[in-house]
Amino acid sequence: MDVTSGCLAEASRELGGGEFVFTILKPPIRNRFRRFAKCPSWRAFTADRLIHRFYDYPRMVRRMRDGFDLFHIMDHSHAHLAHELPAEQTVITCHDLDTFGSILRPRQCRRSPLFRAMTARIWSGFQRAGRIICVSQATGAEVLAAGVVGSERVAVIPNGIQSLSRETWKTDSATALESYLGPIDPDTAELLHVGNNVPRKRIDVLVRILAAVRTQGIAARLIRVGEDFNESQLALIESLSLGPYIKVLQRVDAGILGAIYQRAALLLQTSDAEGFGLPVVESMASGTPVVASDIPALREVGGEITAYCPVADVKSWALVVAALLRERNQEPSQWDQRRARGVVWASRFSWQRAAEKTLSIYREILYRDDLQHATADHAML
């Protein structure tokens, strides 16, 4: 959430005119266990991260809380910090409810006692916040359906797109991108997915869609930006003989990511659940059409411009993808219009708009007792 915090703070400073002073508070993760060579690296990192999250971070917040008028926890997974803060002066941004699966869906999300205890601490902190900002109407509805906060405490403010990325996308990064993906093959359609490997992303469905599209005689390959495939996904890829037609890029900077969006024929968002769906907006902003799962959050973000398919219905996905690729090849003017409409739609998701709405919430909190602060110190966590 570092990027989100930075973008919102920058846009808010520009709009606030000095009314607010923004400070981003984030202590570095200390290498307590990773210093010992005999300790497996992943276990050491997990231990250091847990101590950082549940000891170092709360301790820093507790020490510094008297120096600020308002606190904004930018990710609900750090909501336990709210226990250290004045509730009425605390805002939390909720991106989705995945973190709270073991609380809200205990039968489906069976976790260890330690994990449940940590989640319970985060969940109780979440409920303390004076205001909760949800990144989509769909997420807001889920929060209200959980029945732990009233509607008067919940607001919906969609995410924006990095302004830096928008500018970078306008540059020609084709040469640099070729070192990652090779030269463009005009006879091959590149299908893009951006995201991690959590189960709700349905990477298995994504792989099967590629196979189904290729069985229709369409030369297509899949570009994934995110985590590498896990063992079960690799086994599926091998069983379908798709290895030569898939490329994974685990870490790319904003400029290369923007160039990948521009180069792709289509973005595929196969998730069965989302809180927002940032790749959908980023792809449309770059002029690349999207095919997405027909779920509330993606409907909300993608609007009427995006094509939708039932979750995990591989046959439907393959038919829609094939039809769009035919349009791209055979009806260029209609394809260009589709791309242009996507760019216009995506323009509504800006950090300036997000900042305007967020600042109004800050004012409601700070001036609710008609306090007239010349400036207000605001901490982003």
Q: Can you describe this structure in just a few lines?
A:
The protein is of the alpha/beta class and 381 residues long. It contains 15 helices and twelve strands.
Q: What is the typical, i.e. mean, pLDDT?
A: 90
Give the N-to-C terminal Cα separation: 9 Å
Under the CATH scheme, which class of the largest domain? Answer: Alpha Beta
The strand count comes to 12
CATH architecture of the largest domain: 3-Layer(aba) Sandwich
SS-based class? alpha/beta
How large is the radius of gyration?
22 Å
The domain tally reads: 2
- The CATH topology label of the largest domain is Rossmann fold
Percent helix = 40-55%
Largest beta sheet, briefly?
A: 6 strands, parallel
Strand fraction? 5-15%
What is the 3D form?
Answer: globular
Unreliable stretches (pLDDT < 50, length at least 5) are 164-170
Order of helices and strands: HEHEEHHEHEHHEHEHEHEHEHEHHHE
How many helices in DSSP terms? 15
For the largest beta sheet, what order do the strands appear in spatially?
1-12-2-3-4-5
Supply the key terms.
381 residues, alpha/beta, Rossmann fold, 2 domains, six-stranded parallel β-sheet
Blueprint (SSEs and pairs):
Elements: H1 2-16, E1 20-24, H2 41-64, E2 70-73, E3 90-94, H3 101-104, H4 113-128, E4 131-134, H5 137-145, E5 154-156, H6 163-169, H7 174-181, E6 189-194, H8 203-215, E7 220-225, H9 231-239, E8 246-249, H10 254-263, E9 266-269, H11 278-285, E10 290-293, H12 296-302, E11 307-309, H13 314-330, H14 332-346, H15 351-366, E12 376-380
Parallel strand pairs: 1-12, 2-3, 2-12, 3-4, 4-5, 6-7, 6-9, 7-8, 9-10, 10-11
Helix pairs in contact: 1-15, 6-10, 8-13, 11-14, 13-14
